[in-house]
C-alpha cells in the first residue's frame, strides 16, 4: 500500500490559525478524501501530515479517530492509519442513504420560497470545463460538489453534514473506475437535466431524475467492484 502525498496540506495551514482542533483537521483530511487527493488504501502518515499542517501528533490522532468513526479511515495494528477500502455492501448501503438524503433535500427545497442554485450551477460549469480538457478525475470532483449543492438546497446543516460524510465515502469508490470519458461523461448529462428542471421549479421531476441517476450509479459501481 502506498503512503499519501501530503505536500499540498501546507496550503491548508491558514484554516487552522483560529482553531487547531481535531475537528478542523479532520475536516481538511475529509475534504482531501472527497476530492480524491487521498485514495483508498493509502497510509495517513502521522509525521508527514502533522508536519505539513503544523499540528501536534495528539491532535492528529484525535482527527484520525473522528475519520474512523465516519468510516473513512481504519487503524491497522502496528501498521498505522489508512484511508478505508470499502465493499459492495458498503456501496449498496451508501446509495440507500444518498437516495434518502438527496431526494429528501429536493422535496424540502420545494417547500421553500426561494432556492439558490448558484453552487450547483458552478459545479456543473466546473465539470464541463474539466471535460473539455479530458480531466476526468476533476469531473468526478465536480460531480461530488454538485451533489453536495443539491443536499444544501434543503437549508439544513444536519442534512449538509450527513451529505459531506456520505460523499466522502462515495469518493472512495471512484478509484475503482479507469477515469475515462465513458464513466464520467454521463454524470454531466444527468446533472444538466436535474438542474434544468430545478430552474423551472419542477422539483418532483428533478427528484425522479435524481433517483434514477443514483440507482444507475449504484449499479455501475457494483459492477466495477465485482
UniProtKB/TrEMBL annotation:
The keyword tRNA-binding does not apply. The keyword DNA-binding applies. CDD domains: WHTH_GntR (cd07377). Residues 19-86 form the HTH gntR-type domain. It comes from the Bacteria. Keywords: DNA-binding, Transcription, Transcription regulation. SUPFAM superfamilies: GntR ligand-binding domain-like (SSF48008), Winged helix' DNA-binding domain (SSF46785). This is GntR family transcriptional regulator. It comes from Amycolatopsis heterodermiae.
Amino acid at each position: 500500500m502506498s503512503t499519501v502525498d501530503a505536500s499540498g496540506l501546507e496550503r491548508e495551514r491558514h484554516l487552522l490559525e483560529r482553531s487547531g482542533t481535531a475537528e478542523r483537521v479532520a475536516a481538511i483530511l475529509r475534504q482531501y478524501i472527497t476530492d480524491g487527493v487521498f485514495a483508498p488504501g493509502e497510509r495517513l502518515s502521522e509525521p508527514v501530515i502533522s508536519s505539513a499542517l503544523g499540528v501536534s501528533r495528539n491532535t492528529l490522532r484525535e482527527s484520525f479517530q473522528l475519520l474512523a468513526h465516519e468510516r473513512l479511515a481504519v487503524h491497522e495494528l502496528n501498521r498505522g492509519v489508512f484511508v478505508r477500502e470499502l465493499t459492495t455492501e458498503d456501496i449498496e448501503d451508501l446509495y440507500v442513504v444518498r437516495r434518502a438524503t438527496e431526494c429528501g433535500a429536493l422535496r424540502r427545497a420545494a417547500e421553500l420560497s426561494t432556492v439558490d442554485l448558484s453552487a450547483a450551477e458552478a459545479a456543473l460549469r466546473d465539470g464541463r470545463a474539466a471535460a473539455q480538457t479530458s480531466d476526468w478525475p476533476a469531473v468526478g470532483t465536480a460531480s461530488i460538489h454538485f451533489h453536495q449543492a443539491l443536499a444544501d438546497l434543503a437549508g439544513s446543516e444536519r442534512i449538509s453534514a450527513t451529505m459531506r460524510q456520505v460523499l466522502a465515502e462515495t469518493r472512495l469508490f471512484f478509484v475503482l473506475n479507469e477515469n475515462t470519458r465513458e464513466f464520467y461523461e454521463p454524470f454531466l448529462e444527468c446533472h444538466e437535466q436535474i438542474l434544468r428542471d430545478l430552474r423551472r421549479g419542477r422539483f418532483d421531476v428533478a427528484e425522479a431524475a435524481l433517483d434514477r441517476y443514483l440507482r444507475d450509479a449504484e449499479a455501475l459501481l457494483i459492477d466495477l467492484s465485482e
